[in-house]
Amino acid sequence: METIDSKKTDKNQLPPDQVSPKEVVNRVILFKDQLIRSWKLLAIFMVIGGAIGFIIDFNTDKRPTYTGYITFNLGGGSSQGGLGELGNLAGMFGLGGGAPDANIFTGENFMYYVVSKPIITRSLLKEVDTTANHKDLMVNYYINKSGIRDDEWEDDDTLRNFRFIRGKDPKNFTRLENKALDGVFNRIKGETSIAQLDRKSSFLTLRTGMHAEMLAATWLDILLETVQEDFTEKQNRKTREMLVLMENRRDSLGRVLGRNDSNLARYIDQNQQVVVAEGQLQQSKLTRNSTFLQQLYYGAVQSVDNLKLSLIKEAPLFTIVEPVSLPLFKETHEPFAFQAGIVMGLILGLIFIFLRQTFYSIMQS
């Protein structure tokens, strides 16, 4: 009989790697009882989590962020040789072979160039329409609308009340002006980015995110305008130098030709009846000089016209594919750390109570 009962008992027992439903229910009841006994501890965890979340919410910037972007395409001038504009675009995005191009307007160089300090500073010192009938420097507009006074300059009354003067050369800026400009540059550079829209396209996207909608839209327009101006100036610098040289040559030849023609006319008027060979020789000399100077002058005029046409051909073409459109995308920052802190405190409290109960059970066994 004992052997039969023992066999029945063995059949009713579960393998060691399985848990019966009855045991699960018992463990849940024990854990519930433990929660009821430890409710104060659970409440402490929730209070601590809620307090941490409240502090985070209190220090979090709740102002909305307006995100805007401009998508544009950059085409090179016709003076690139060989592949021309297509070759320029291929090099811009690293599609060409060989060593990296040292040109600042190609590849990653161009990305850095757009958000470099000279470009951003030049953009900030431009005049913009802040209201219907009022113009101001972009840097003053940014100081007034971006919130930098309440963030970075909260404890500096000198910077909070500072304004830039229009028409002043940056080379003559005072220490305070340079400090203010550096502060604006460091903040606005972090709010501005440029990236290739897609690996297979040559479109670029200039993006910014600020707390003021009109400020963000104005900044994108003025920055792209400055990039286009500076790009064109640097791209055509050699041609412009040659143009200045040829214009000076043209004007100089024009003055010499005018004096020679005046002398020839005066000599003819004074010696109409002279038939001696010496007089005719002087008239022939002045006529020959006039003809030669005319040829040089017309050649200089033609060279100036050709250089002006070259400036147009070499100028890069900025095509705006998607301009800034209002309203901009608005991202609100609703406080949620307080609620998240309470939930995290609850979860950590449950885990702590469970681990403590498991530890006590192990010690008792």
UniProtKB/TrEMBL annotation:
Keyword match Aminoacyl-tRNA synthetase: no
GO CC annotations on file: plasma membrane
GO MF term list: protein tyrosine kinase activity
TM stretches of this protein: 39-56, 336-355
Keyword Glycosyltransferase part of the UniProt annotation: no
Keywords: Membrane, Transmembrane, Transmembrane helix
Full protein name: Lipopolysaccharide biosynthesis protein
Organism: Larkinella punicea
